[in-house]
Amino acid sequence: MFDNMAVLQLPVNPLDEEQLKLKIKIINKIVPLGHQKGLLIYFGDVFPNYNSLFNQVKKNILAYVPSDFILTLHAPFSSHCPNRYLNFSLPESIVFFKQTIKLAEEIKAKSITVHFGTNYYQSSVDNSPEMLVWPYKDNNFDKIKEEIIFPAFENIKLLANQTEIKIGVENMPVPLKGNVTTNPKEIIYEPSFVTKEFFLLFANFFRDTPNVGLCFDTAHYGLARDSINKLLDDHEDNYIMNNQFTKFGYGPLYPGNFSIQPSMCDLIKEFIFMGGRVFDVQLVDYGQIWKPERKEKNDDGQILEEGLGLLEGLSGKEILDVGKFINNLDNNIPISFDIEVENFLEPVKQVSAALIYIDFIGGKLDVDFSFNHKNKNLVSSYYEKAKKIISNISL
Questions:
Q1: Is the CB of residue 308 less than 8 Å from the CB of residue 219?
Q2: Tally of structural domains, the chain
Q3: Does residue 320 fall inside a structural domain?
Q4: Within a domain: residue 106?
């Protein structure tokens, strides 16, 4: 079958004891004997009174999670509501993320996953004290680097120098909030971790900071790549293209000159060549990309689709190839399946994705196609396997 396999993780909300116990039993059941496994401790797109929950999180993890599980703590984020405490370019973030690192150390997590959080409203939309309005009207990426990106880099480095915990920074889709609105005026500006050029900027800056690296989200990159490449293909002239970015609400987010975005594996190879480190990978598929003022939605009412199961979206085999590449690169890198589910006590899509990945790595699954209409029967068969595993587990 295989000698080694990457660390497999399932996402879990540690405040839900039933979900936590179920995910532990599932991961013990599906990961082949002798291979590493763990959990992605996940709170999601929320900013609750997070610090007050630390004691309960710690209590549940220490009570239920086996000591040999490898844990990644995903810090809270707030993509749809910009927040000063989650924006790494601002000093307020340091205090908050110090507490997150402290929790990671206490639960013996190997790493934390964070977002840059350098996201902004386009204009004043409410009176919230946490409101952050985009301060730039011109397309001047050098100014954005100086005032937003490099301060965020420095704050992350400051945190990294105070801990041995690995800090994995997650790449972003484009545009934020594009999953719920087609109105360019309503999307969120986020200049960080979208393009290949930013990946390489990040790799070069942190090449001498060994505990800062990348959490690679395959769906986020696929959505960003396809959106940017379509725009570049539609508007070959750079001047026209920049005007289209502004017109369509992307804002002055990216370098003045950037390239067609590459395949996922090629991107990761170039990132590593430039000195970057990969700490975690989230294998997730994606569907339709964001287009301004589009009318159609998918069956779930989504506009920009992320969180799809493996082989359910546009990427198909490419995502499995990323998993295989990471597995061969370093099997100590955790791979998780952060796939949306309707019922967290019936995580069929997450379990199905893990089973597909295990069989693909083990040579039991020969996938040579790309589009989801060809994968329907295969995915359905793995759904049935996942349902059977879940139904046979007793809490």
A1: yes
A2: 1
A3: yes
A4: yes
